[in-house]
Amino acid sequence: MEKALNKFLQELARSKKISVSKISDGYHSFEELYDHRNLLFITLARLFKDNNAVVWKSLKNRDGKGTPGWFVMGIDYMAADENTIKQISYHLPMSLWKYCKFASTMNKSPWNGHASKDVIEQLIELLKHD
């Protein structure tokens, strides 16, 4: 049922009959949740930068191509085992670039191939260490 509903919503969005960003769970719209996610990530990146992690931003993806209206920001940090560099990154809207002055600007994203599920696992792992 969820797949059918998602497909239906995507079709409505493509036809410009609805704005998916305005869809709500009754408490928050997708747009509001993404605003929270984006600003929380920038805040996390700032805290990592203050603790000597590598924080970067790029107008171009790893393949050297950009996504109009978006940039990539990432955090490269040492894992708890102190032998592995981990990475968390997100695409962010260009309107937030001004809040990321603390990040190093890269010619293209040094994305290491991590997937969304990897980021979730890494965030959980970070919570396990005090």
Short account of what is shown:
It contains three helices and four strands. It has 130 residues and is of the alpha+beta class.
Can you describe this structure?
The protein has 130 residues and is an alpha+beta fold. It has one domain (28-127). 35% of the residues lie in helices and 20% in strands. The protein has a four-stranded mixed beta sheet. Strand 2 (70-78) and strand 3 (85-93) form a beta hairpin.
The number of helical runs is 3
Would you tell me the structural class of the helices and strands? alpha+beta
Overall morphology: globular
- The total strand number stands at 4
Number of self-contained structural domains: 1
Average of pLDDT? 89
Task: Please compute the radius of gyration using only Cα atoms.
Answer: 17 Å
Looking at how many chains there are and whether they match, the oligomeric state comes to: single chain
Uncertain runs are none
For the sheet with most strands, the description reads:
4 strands, mixed
SSE run: HHEEEEH
Q: Please indicate the percent range of residues in DSSP E strands (runs of 2 or more).
A: 15-25%
Measured between the Cα atoms of the first and last residue, the distance is 41 Å
Strand neighbour order, sheet with most strands: 3-2-1-4
Task: Determine the fraction of residues in helical runs and give it as a percent range.
Answer: 25-40%
